[in-house]
Amino acid sequence: MKFLDEYRDPDAAKRYSELIRSITTKSWNIMEVCGGQTHAIVKFGLDELLPESIRLIHGPGCPVCVTSLELIDKSIEIASNPNVIFCSFGDMLRVPGSKKDLLQVKSEGGDVRMMYSPLDAVKIAKENPHNEVVFFAVGFETTAPANAMAVYQAKELGIKNFSILVSHVLVPPAMEAILSSENCMVQGFLAAGHVCAVMGYNEYFPIAEKYKVPIVVTGFEPLDILQGIYMTVKQLEEGRHEVENQYARVVDKEGNLPAQNLVSRVFKVGTRKWRGIGEIPDSGLVLQDNFREFDASLKFGLAELVVDEPKECISGIILQGLKKPNECQAFGKLCTPEHPLGATMVSSEGACAAYYRYRIKP
Fold first, then answer.
1. Is residue 52 part of a domain?
2. Fewest C-beta in 10 Å: which of 24, 256, 292, 338?
3. Helix pair angle (351-358, 35-44), 10° resolution
C-alpha cells in the first residue's frame, strides 16, 4: 500500500531525488538492464533528477535489438517462401536485415502476420495444414514460457507444419559478459523485474559476489526505478554488493516454478550470437533434441547462414553501454525510425528509439 500511496503523490519523485542526492558522495555508474526501464528513464527525465555524479548506462535488455542480423535474414528468407505463413511480434517487422525487413516482404506479397501470442500461430497451423507456419520466437526469459508452450502443444497435437525460429537470450550471461569486459564501467545493476518474475533472482547472487557489484531487481514505473537507484547507490556508498528486491510486489526469489519447468522441458541452454556484440557462451535457449523437428532454422536449411554486421551502425557499442545513442554520428540523420540502420532505432524498447522520441528537440 505504501508504494501505491506514493505513486499517487506528485511530489514522490522529487523526494526520492533528494534522498538519492543526500547519500551520494562519489561518482557511480549504474546500468539498467531492461529497455523498458530505459524508455521510462528517458521519457520521464529520471536521469535529469539525479546528481551529475550518478551516470545511468543503458544495457542490452531489448531482445529485438540483440537479435542477430543473420537471424533477421533467416526470418526474411523463410517469410519469402510462398508456402509459409510467417508470424511474429510486431516489433520485429521493421528491424532491418541485410537488404530488407519483414514488412517489405509483406508488401511484396509474403504472408507475414503480427501476433500477440505464439499459441495463435499454433492455431493457424492447425487451420492451414497445407502451409508451413513459422513463429519468430524472440525474447528474454519473459517470453520463453509461452514459446515453450506453443512447441509443446504442437507436439502434443501432432501438428507437423508448425515451427519456431528461436532467438531467445538470457540476462545473467549478458551481465557477466559486460562485467568481464576490459571496457566495463558498470558498478551496479538494476535487474529487469519481468525476467525475475519468471526466473526469480537466485542466479544473481553468484554474479554479485564474483564481481562485487550490487544488483537490485527493479520494476518499471518511474518510482520503481528511482527507488531501485536509491537502493543501488546506498549499497555502493556503504561498500556492499548484495542482491536486493525492489519489485517485491511482483517478484520473489524462486520465480514461477511451473513456467521454469516448462521452459527446461522444451529448451536447453546454448551459445547465442548477439547483434553488435557477438557470441556469448551459454547465453541463449535452443530446442531440446526431442523438439528439434520444430526448429525452423533446420527445417528450412538455414542453420549455417552467417552475415556480417553493417559498419555504420554502432548499436553493439550502445547495447554494451559504452556510448549513448546521441553520441552516434548517424543518430537522427542517417538513422531515423523511418530509415533505421539498426534495431535499436525501431524497437519499442530500443535506446535509440527512446532518445529519438523523447530527446530530439522539435
1. no
2. 338
3. 10
